[in-house]
Write a structure and sequence with these properties.
It contains 12 helices and 5 strands. The chain has helices spanning 16-32, 52-69, 86-95, 100-104, 107-113, 121-135, 149-165, 207-214, 236-244, 247-258, 264-291, 293-322; strands spanning 5-8, 36-40, 76-80, 141-144, 175-178.
């Protein structure tokens, strides 16, 4: 059976882009692949300037949001990356077999480094740690969005390099499990949904807060008047309908939009209903976890122990393969 691993940075409470682009799929996969491994990758969050108090709050908020969204500790392993030091140990080992040029060609590195006067080495080494995150658990399947495929390819290449260097068939070449939901654009319609862009809807926001963000959200730019027929295929709000509403509602929305039967506000009100229906149980579970924080702590502690048991076995075998343990041959 395939072993699944995926990670998410601790940005605090989830927004609907995180939820639809990754976490909702994780919840489905944990039922199909018992023992799926999900990690809050807090080491990845320290490559730039940050406030320790804010990071602490974001780690907690992300763990709580994952549990509220449906990650079940009885089915999946959920843990903090920093609770398993073998992640950084394997990452260092992988830096010794990773060409500098491969890292400099990474799209995310080129994008981030172009905006920085002084580039932290961690920005360059980010995908090496990401490869270690995956291969530490010898995962052969990784749920990802399209924007993460290049980093996954580096993990696959790292696996091949290690196996070839030491003449073993130890690490698998992890395959992508593409998230069914297409990339979620922000409410401005100009970029991927991101907190830094201010174009998100938080998973735990109230109905009124969601509506205040939906009302001005970008729709089809060519639909100026209510009487103008719309183009659902280019409307970001329509993509959210497909994520939050059933097929019959989506078909109705497409018809009413393309025939100018509804205005954009009518369309957004129907979207709000679908969002409230799906998000209300998540908000309720989050409130329950606020009342019982020990449930979050216990889930992370149990997950950390389970993850570290696997990680320690991997590192013991890796050290043996590399000649870093054991006695010399007689």
């Amino acid at each position: 059976m395939a072993r699944i691993f995926s990670g998410i940075q601790p940005s605090g409470e989830l927004h609907i882009g995180n939820y639809l682009g990754a976490v909702k799929n994780w919840v489905t996969l944990q039922g199909e692949h018992p023992g799926a491994i999900y990690c809050v990758v807090d080491y990845h969050a320290i490559t730039g300037a940050y406030d320790p108090a804010v990071l602490r709050a974001r780690r907690w908020g992300m763990a709580k949001s994952l549990l509220a969204s449906g990650i079940d500790p009885a089915q999946a392993i959920l843990f903090m990356q920093s609770d398993v030091p073998e992640h950084t140990e394997l990452s260092w080992i992988f830096t010794t077999i990773t060409p500098l040029g491969d890292l400099e060609r990474q799209t995310q590195f080129k994008d981030k480094s172009s905006k920085l006067e002084s580039i932290p080495a961690g920005v360059l080494m980010y995908p090496v740690l990401q490869a270690a995150d995956i291969l530490l658990y010898r995962a052969d399947s990784v749920p990802v969005g399209e924007d993460q495929i290049q980093h996954l390819e580096l993990a696959r290449d790292t696996s091949r390099k290690f196996n070839a260097k030491f003449d073993v068939a130890y690490f698998p070449e992890p395959k992508p499990l593409l998230t069914p939901t297409r990339r979620i654009m922000g409410l401005d319609g100009n970029a991927k949904m991101s907190k830094s862009m201010g174009n998100t809807i938080g998973l735990l926001e109230s109905d009124e807060e969601i509506w205040q963000k939906l009302r001005p959200a970008m729709t089809d730019p060519q639909r100026v008047r209510k009487s103008d027929p719309g183009r659902p295929e280019v409307c970001n709000i329509f993509q959210l309908h497909k994520a939050f509403n059933g097929e019959s509602t989506v078909a109705q929305v497409a018809d009413q939009c393309s025939t100018a039967g509804w205005g954009c506000m009518d369309c957004k009100k129907v979207l709000l209903e679908g969002m409230v229906q799906e998000l209300t149980p998540i908000r309720r579970r989050s409130a329950e976890l606020d009342e019982e924080p020990s449930r979050v702590l216990d889930a992370l502690a149990d997950g950390g122990r389970a993850a570290r048991a696997i990680a320690q076995q991997t590192m013991g075998e890796v050290r043996e393969i590399m000649g870093l343990s054991g006695l010399p041959a007689a």
